[in-house]
Design goal:
Length: 338
């Protein structure tokens, strides 16, 4: 007897149908993976933008809040110069003269000689203060005295009230006394910080960056701080009746005035000494472009000197942007005695 076997298998048509279905499933999975990856990438870009914007705002806010901090020295005892100081000057006489102007700004200007690569149309803001710790203070990481760096010393002894402070790059010349009129008064490092927006983080990379010029030994060093900060616009609140509160805001209070009748404002004094608060506006953007996106928005960064809206855009590029705003009180300037 012969046995017959039944042979089974795929026909060519069945095999082609199976391959087609498999390819469709694979294409769907690939598309899902790519969309998920693209979405994750965009979320990371937005998160970096939000983090950078908030970090820049927090940093500037804290810096402005302590503008004019000179230890035990009362800011109101300082007489403002009759000319607006040049923040790039590093001589001892120039630094002393600029002490009363704890904050100073430049409206859409890149004219300062100690800055480079300043982005056109952005503001520059100068903050003057002393370190919040003094040399040798216990429980702090305050740096030891550095050569050729300016230090501020405030007289605490009553017999030296005629000379309330001294500032010098040679600490051997700082001889004011502490409260007991015997020991030397503490030394605080004097700082001038100039904040500005640069066109690049690293040379030629095209990433707008918040940078700071820091006063050091014999000059300024520029330090990059936050990438993606594209614009900074500042309005300054001016106190006109000496109550420590801003009565009007101006984008460029670098003029002189003799119209204030209050006794605490001297004629021909720059308005900078009367600035008690700041409205800060930052425009942050992604550091990378988003394919298929076009920025058609208009961004309002406060007001111009003439009171009109300070608007920017549409940029018509593929970068996503966000505006950050804050009103900041200058505690040391606003808290001056009447």
């Amino acid at each position: 007897m012969t046995s017959s076997r039944t042979q089974c298998g795929f026909s060519l048509v069945e095999l082609m149908i199976a391959l087609t279905i498999g390819l469709l499933i694979l294409a769907g999975l690939t598309a899902t993976f790519m969309n998920s990856n693209r979405t994750r990438s965009e979320i990371e870009k937005v998160n970096r933008q939000i983090e950078n914007g908030r970090f820049a705002m927090d940093m500037l806010t804290e810096e402005l809040r302590i503008a004019g901090y000179y230890g035990e020295l009362d800011v109101s005892r300082l007489t403002a110069p009759l000319t607006t100081p040049d923040p790039c000057q590093t001589g001892v006489a120039a630094l002393k003269a600029a002490l009363p102007i704890v904050i100073q700004g430049y409206d859409e200007s890149n004219s300062l000689s100690c800055l480079s690569d300043v982005k056109t149309g952005t503001d520059v803001i100068v903050v003057r203060r002393a370190s919040t710790c003094y040399v040798g203070e216990a429980g702090t990481n305050c740096d030891a005295v550095q050569t050729s760096v300016p230090y501020l010393q405030v007289a605490l002894c009553n017999t030296q009230s005629a000379t309330p402070f001294d500032l010098n790059t040679d600490t051997s010349l700082l001889t004011l006394n502490a409260l007991n009129c015997t020991a030397a008064a503490p030394l605080r490092r004097y700082r001038t910080h100039i904040y500005f927006i640069a066109n690049n983080d690293q040379s030629g990379d095209g990433i707008p960056t918040l940078k700071r010029a820091e006063l050091g030994a014999g000059g300024f060093t520029i330090v990059p701080l936050v990438e993606g900060i594209e614009n900074m616009q500042v309005e300054y609140g001016i106190d006109t009746n000496c109550d420590g509160t801003a009565d009007l805001y101006n984008a460029s209070p670098d003029t002189y005035t003799a119209t204030y009748s209050a006794s605490c404002v001297a004629p021909n004094t720059p308005n900078w000494k009367n600035v008690t608060s700041v409205k800060l506006n930052l425009l942050a953007r992604n550091t990378e472009q988003t394919p298929g996106y076009t920025d058609t928005k208009t961004y309002v960064l406060g007001s111009k000197a003439d009171g009109t809206s300070n608007s920017y855009g549409p940029f018509s590029d593929s970068y996503k942007r966000h505006v950050y705003q804050a009103s900041i009180r200058l505690a040391n300037a606003a808290g001056r005695k009447q």
